[in-house]
Amino acid sequence: MLLPKKHRNICIIGAGGIVHDAHLPAYAIAGFTVVGIYDLDVDKASALAAKFGVPHVYSTLDAMIQAHPDAVFDIALPASEIVSVLQQLPEGADVLIQKPMGTHYAEAKEILRCTQAKKMNACFNFQLRYAPFITAAREIIDRGDIGKVYDIEVYVNVFTPWHLWSFMHGKPRIEILYHSIHYIDLIRAFLGNPEGIYAKTVKHPSMHELASVRTNIIMDYGDMIRANILTNHCHQFGYQQQQSYIKFEGTKGAIKINMGVLIDYPRGVPDKFEYVIMEEGRKPEWKELPVEGGWFPHAFIGTMSQIMLAAEGAIEKPEMGVEDALYTMACVEAAYISSEKGSVKISDIL
Ligand SMILES: NC(=O)c1ccc[n+]([C@@H]2O[C@H](COP(=O)([O-])OP(=O)(O)OC[C@H]3O[C@@H](n4cnc5c(N)ncnc54)[C@H](O)[C@@H]3O)[C@@H](O)[C@H]2O)c1
What distance in angstroms lies between residue 161's CA and the mean position of ligand 1's atoms? Predict the structure, then answer.
């Protein structure tokens, strides 16, 4: 993975769960310097600053901007807060923003407009693209070892206690907007933009207070490529039969990545990276590749690096820049529309 030569100072906006679990641990591993943190809840920001050695806690966003106008602003807030915070940041700022890009497509376009009007170097934190197991898969695929990829499947059958996060109650969009969005973005990173989306997302009988939490998505890349995402977050029958994997199939081989982080949540199990390269006249032989680091927190080094690399001119713009992220949001929107439109009715056929 390409890393920045010059580390920029980081200012974090939002001191919630993801900053505690992933942003700050990742930056500590990478040796990035966090100079300040701001949250509406000052006590929360102070506790986080004390735990991770962040030198300054600010009680207003403006005070943090005045103190560090040239920092990378690392936004980790509810999606509904993004636009108003962007409006307060300086012209030309370097900004990394937690996904999703707004709560729906119209908001995503508003975010894009705002970052373009202010000529920002801005991107979204679609960090699964930089998980060490994805970097390893990219290397194998880029070398041509498994040939041309014609099949990507993401399969998730786990128990995610969505109902415990009370802020999700009553929200119209949950699973695709907050979870499958990672897989949509990942598949786009490998196959480009799909022609369209078919989807069905459904609720669960024991989670009445929540919108849909189980999803099937087909990303349409024509008649030779299959790209499917299947998620069931409601497998409440112990971890023994839980599964969570990403599988690539190509003309010369295949890769299967078992993602451990979602299994037996929140404990998790180790990831496993296996691949097979077909050889003429020989039986397929699957091999295991040891991969250091996981999706959380190591992938978060990759997204922050993209912003710093673009800031120092080593790359033209971040891979998951706002223009690119808008396509992922368009796919999310298409998935919800497809699900609402519903199926071809058998009664129309009979
Ligand atoms: N990339 C990932 O894998 C991933 C994982 C989890 C969460 N997220 C995203 O990160 C974001 C934050 O999630 P979280 O789990 O940390 O949420 P959280 O509820 O734990 O924390 C959000 C924090 O934002 C603060 N806040 C809210 N509005 C604010 C404002 N206007 N100004 C300053 N502070 C404000 C709250 O006080 C709270 O401390 C969400 O958008 C979520 O979708 C991404």
Answer: 17
